[in-house]
Amino acid sequence: MASSRGLKVHQSRGEIFRRRLVELEIFDRDRKIRSEDDRLYLPILELNAETAAELAKVGDFDLVEVEFEAAERRPNVEGLLGRRAHFEVVGDVAIADSPDEEVASAILAVHKNVKTVLSPKTPVEGEYRTRRFQFVAGEEKTVTLHKEHGLLYRIDLEKAYFTPRLGTERLRVARQIGLGEVVFDMFAGVGPFALLLAKRGAKVIAVDKNPHAVRLLRENARLNRIDDVEIVEGDAGELAERYERSADHVIMNLPHTASRFLEQATRIAKDGGVVHYYAIASEDDLYGRDTAFVEEAARAAGAKISYLHRGIVRSYAPHQYNIVIDFEVRKP
Ligand SMILES: C[S@@+](CC[C@H](N)C(=O)[O-])C[C@H]1O[C@@H](n2cnc3c(N)ncnc32)[C@H](O)[C@@H]1O
Q1: Class for domain 2-68, per CATH?
Q2: Residue of minimum CA distance from atom 13 in ligand 1
Q3: pTM of this prediction?
Q4: pLDDT tens per residue, range 2-47
Q5: Crossing angle for the helix pair 49-58 and 14-23, nearest 10 degrees?
Q6: Which CATH homologous superfamily contains domain 165-330?
Q7: Sequence-ordered alpha helix ranges (H) in the chain
């Protein structure tokens, strides 16, 4: 083990610091993060005045010299290319940040299961949260079959929203849900929350406004032999009255605009029900704005709330995070 530079940070801020180091391209991937008591040691490549100033915005840290274990190196796209490449894999399709043919060839060479490389032509946009893609290499298609937590999902990347980056979050929610509990998934997409929870014994009502998402959700329920899910095509906000006080859990995975539906979600929750609310928030005010939205909605719905969890789900853009707030609803 060689001694090298690292940041010593409080464990609770560790993930934010790690993501920022990756964004600043100074996280040392050749070394393993160390944990001791309530501190994390994050290996870094270098630190100059500019990057130090950026990190200071994230919180307190100490610059230390410590011993890090070497991280195992498997053949990877960046090693082959000799430069950084950003991409994610959904089923057998890789989505690369740019339509770079060299990157695409490296992805196809390293990831033998990948058959297609696409690159987004538009951001995720519109009410249905979809995007258009440019074909870069391999087989020309946007449809794939993706496996997550043992379930299979038919996905059409252009027609309905899906990201594999919420896989861990879906498990976190799944662990809170008891057998036979009623879950109302307001923005269900192709079903990655809804079907996982139904598979684990919840009674799920899954709603989406996008007819393509609903078609794929029905197909995915069949594919995984899941019957205990009521699939509704429509506007979740308009269904609030019909499902008032029906749910033990309400899932609101529409991070840019979920705040508009908070009052309806609070109405759909039973007394004692839990709302899982997602938003995009900026680093300097992670929970303040959305906590105010939650409280305003609770007042409008005549409910009392208590917070069960607030956390970062993933980084979304520089200085912006996809956050979650779980709150319990109490009704007179
Ligand atoms: C960010 S995606 C999330 C999908 C899914 N929960 C997931 O994890 O993949 C949000 C979904 O909400 C749907 N949507 C947007 N507005 C809606 C509304 N008012 N009622 C129901 N669904 C809506 C979109 O069509 C989209 O599929």
Answers
A1: alpha beta
A2: 187
A3: 0.81
A4: 678 999 999 888 888 998 898 888 999 889 999 999 999 999 998 8
A5: 150
A6: Vaccinia Virus protein VP39 (3.40.50.150)
A7: 14-23, 49-58, 77-81, 101-110, 167-174, 194-199, 211-223, 262-268, 288-301
Q: Read off the pLDDT of residues 125-178 as tens digits, 9 standing for 90 and up.
A: 999 999 999 999 999 999 999 999 999 999 999 999 999 999 999 999 999 999
pLDDT confidence of residue 16? 87
In a mutational test of the pocket of ligand 1, which residue from 187, 214, 316 has the highest number of ligand atoms less than 8 Å from its CB? 187
What does the chain come to in residues? 332
Residue with the smallest CA separation from ligand 1 atom 19 is 235
**63 with 51: CB under 8 angstroms?**
no
Task: Please give, one letter per residue, the 3-state secondary structure of 78-140.
Answer: HHHHCCCCCEEEECCEEEECCCCHHHHHHHHHHCCCCCEEEEECCCCECCCCECCEEEEEECC
Q: Give residue limits of the domains in the chain.
A: 2-68, 77-141, 165-330
Q: Which amino acid is at 327?
A: F
Pick the CATH number of 77-141 from 3.40.50.10710, 3.40.109.10, 2.30.30.280, 3.30.300.110: 3.30.300.110
pLDDT digits (tens, 9 = 90+) for 224-264: 999 889 999 999 999 999 999 999 999 999 999 999 999 99
The pair of structure tokens assigned to 222 is 């069949």
Which residues sit with their C-beta closer than 6 Å to ligand 1?
127-129, 160-162, 166, 187-189, 192-193, 207-210, 213, 235-237, 253-254
Q: Residues 220, 198: contact at Cβ < 8 Å?
A: no
> 134: number of CA atoms within 13 Å, CB side?
13
